[in-house]
Design a protein that fits this description.
This protein is α+β, with helices and mostly antiparallel strands and 149 residues long. 38% of the residues lie in helices and 21% in strands. It folds into 2 domains: 1-31, no CATH class; 33-145, Trna Endonuclease, Chain: A, domain 1 (3-Layer(aba) Sandwich), CATH 3.40.1350.
Length: 149
């Protein structure tokens, strides 16, 4: 049996079935879901959502590295801009984007690929760094350098 689901928020048949029937994670077999993939036809962004104190596991990081490489290569091939894999945490009614606290308006701008510029933060250094973090390795560096306080 694989590792028990920890949030209690996944009542789906498949999630329960996979945990009971697929190889144990101790054998090196990893399974994760991709929470959100956003696209407007010109841009692509992947989000891992965590609620509360949950963190991205080493197994998830491993899978997201593969997903990141595949999406990056595909987007390059078809002429889309790839914005990488990012972490959205909801903790104590606050939002954190790649370990940086942000407001809902800022999140809306990020997720609309900058189409909502009315808040004037696109010139801030954290925003430029976030947009530039287009690889899982960049994401990992960003996350380590910017822990939740």
């Amino acid at each position: 049996m694989t590792k028990q689901e920890m949030t209690g928020r996944r009542p789906s048949w498949f999630s329960s079935w996979a945990r009971e029937r697929l190889p144990d994670s101790k054998t090196g077999y990893n399974i994760t879901d991709i929470d959100f993939v956003l696209s407007d036809g010109k841009n692509l962004l992947v989000i891992e959502e965590k609620v509360g104190a949950s963190e991205v596991t080493p197994a998830q990081r491993s899978i997201y590295r593969l997903v990141n490489t595949a999406f990056r290569d595909l987007c390059t091939k078809i002429g889309m801009k790839y914005h990488g894999v990012h972490l959205l945490q909801i903790k104590d009614e606050k939002l954190f984007w790649d370990y940086r606290e942000i407001e809902e308006d800022e999140l809306a701008c990020l997720l609309s690929f900058g189409k909502m510029h009315k808040h004037g933060f696109e010139d801030k250094e954290w925003y430029k760094q976030m947009v530039a973090a287009s690889t899982v390795e960049d994401f990992d560096k960003w996350a380590k350098a910017n822990p939740i306080k």
